Amino acid sequence: MKYLPIDRQLFIKNREKFASKMATNSMAIFNSNDVYPISADSTLPFAQHRDILYLSGVDQEESVLVIFPDCPKKENREILFLKETNDHIAVWEGEKLNKEKALETSGISTVYWLHDMEKVLFELMTQAETIYINTNEHYRANVETETRDARFIKWLKEKYPAHTYKRSQPIMQRLRSVKEPQEIEMIQKACDITEKGFKRVLGFMKPGVMEYEVEAEFIHEFTRNRSAGFAYTPIIGSGYNACVLHYIENNQPCKEGDVVLMDVGAEYANYASDMTRCVPVSGKFSKRQKEVYSAVLRVKNAAAKLLVPGTIWADYHVEVGKLMTSELLGLGLISKEDVDKEDPSWPAYKKYFMHGTSHHMGLDTHDYGILTEPMEANMVFTVEPGIYIPEENLGIRLEDDYVIQASGEPLNLMQNIPIEIEDIEKWMAG
Predict the structure, then answer these.
(1) Please, where are the H alpha helices in 305-420?
(2) What does each C-alpha distance from 80 to 62, 70, 73, 374 come to in angstroms?
(3) Which of 105, 103, 104, 83 is nearest to 94 (CA)?
(4) Is 156 in the same domain as 234?
(5) Comparing C-alpha atoms, which of 273, 324, 289 is closest to residue 303?
(6) Using 50, 70 and 90 to split pLDDT, how confident is the model at 372?
(7) Which of 130, 162, 177 is the last residue of a domain?
(8) What's the CA gap between 121 and 71, in Å, rounded?
């Protein structure tokens, strides 16, 4: 890991919060992610399952966390199972967690090696009545690969069919959606690294630069600031490419007169940032580009003010739709007749603004959160309206990350990243 050590008190507190929501005499089990093969002996870089990371801080493959608050043996109320390390592994793969390092990282004193797990688990299962299992229930999830959790759940239910099983996700969804101050600090760090990358790009952008060269400038700055890289696959789209919502090829030239849309964000300590900025390749926006840009910026600023405790996500998007409708009318992109005759399930503004405005953000770019429940203080949301006009080769999206406050307007974690037209042009002029 490139990031600095995290105070284990965060993970201790997170486990306490989870344990307080568990049923009497119950046990929860969380698995790490797999190391996924590519071909031959090649693998994808390991990325830890965010749930076990949230509860333990253990950022290592082949790890298992057990939480059993009512266990008769006090020492077994929190357990880590880890892959046994040795000198050979240290030479070939690098140092792995030993029992002392695991305690330092997680605050968990009871550590067993993974090869002892089945034996230890047998004893625990005789003492527990209910088992919390971990499944991916994110509203955007589309899982085709059988995960380590899925294989484990299948094995567990076959071996212990008489136990009662509950889902950990209803608890995790609520806990992870509301951030601790230390989590907000790490998201802020990710945003600050993104800021450094964007300011670097503002001085680099000129006609003829390739989209992938822009991507390279970002990753250079991210890596030199302790980020593991992009929090998600970056979008660098010039001209018409900016109108393709998930354009990731990033292989075309940035042409004079075009606007480049950059949807990028650094991660830090596995916490995401999520930024979108649009800049003129030649350093100056045209009159029409300014009009569209200003309209999107007004919607973003107004939408952000709606992120207050008690707001319902679906209602919020209705209000943002009204804001966007007004701006599109002003730009002449839709007419009053279009609005009067619109299909309520697909309003007129959707022709030019077809995606949502906000999502939870944290350990995942699209983080946990129950969209049918009211927003709360210390939730982190993106705000990312856009207007896409393919016939004009122009797409504008602007995005910042906000922390909902107990009262008043949300805190903009990206307030230091240039976004006003005059600031963008000033930075590009050097």
Answers:
(1) 313-331, 336-340
(2) 11, 17, 15, 35
(3) 83
(4) no
(5) 324
(6) very high
(7) 177
(8) 12
Residue type at 47 in one-letter notation = A
381 lies in the same domain as 286: yes
Query: Is 4 within the bounds of a domain?
Result: no
Q: Assign 88 a pLDDT band (cuts: 50, 70, 90).
A: low
- Model confidence, pTM: 0.96
- The neighbouring-strand residues paired with 43 are 37
* Residue 364 backbone phi and psi in degrees, to 5: -110, 145
Q: DSSP character for 346?
A: B
Q: What's the rounded Cα separation, in Å, for the pair 413 and 380?
A: 9
Report the alpha-carbon distance of residue 129 to residue 124 in Å, rounded.
10
Is 37 in a helix, a strand, or coil?
A: strand
Residue written as token pair 């101050």 = 181
Residue type, position 428, single letter:
M
Domain edge (last residue) among 177, 205, 228: 177
Q: What is the CATH number of the domain that holds 342?
A: 3.90.230.10
354 plus 418 within the same structural domain: yes
Whether 61 is covered by a domain: the verdict is: yes
State how far the Cα of 46 lies from the Cα of 61, in Å rounded to an integer.
7
Per-residue CA distances from 403 to 7, 138, 306, 364, 391 (Å): 22, 21, 12, 15, 36
Which tokens belong to 125?
A: 């299962």
Span of 138-152, 177-191, 375-389 with lowest mean pLDDT: 138-152
| 164-167 vs 130-133, strand pairing mode | parallel
Name the domain count of the chain: 2
Backbone torsions φ then ψ of 426, nearest 5 degrees:
-65, -45
- Dig out the tokens for 127 from the structure: 């003492």
Model confidence band, residue 89 (pLDDT cutoffs 50, 70, 90): low
Domain assignment of residue 325, given as a range: 181-429
Choose among 110, 26, 16: nearest CA to 68: 26
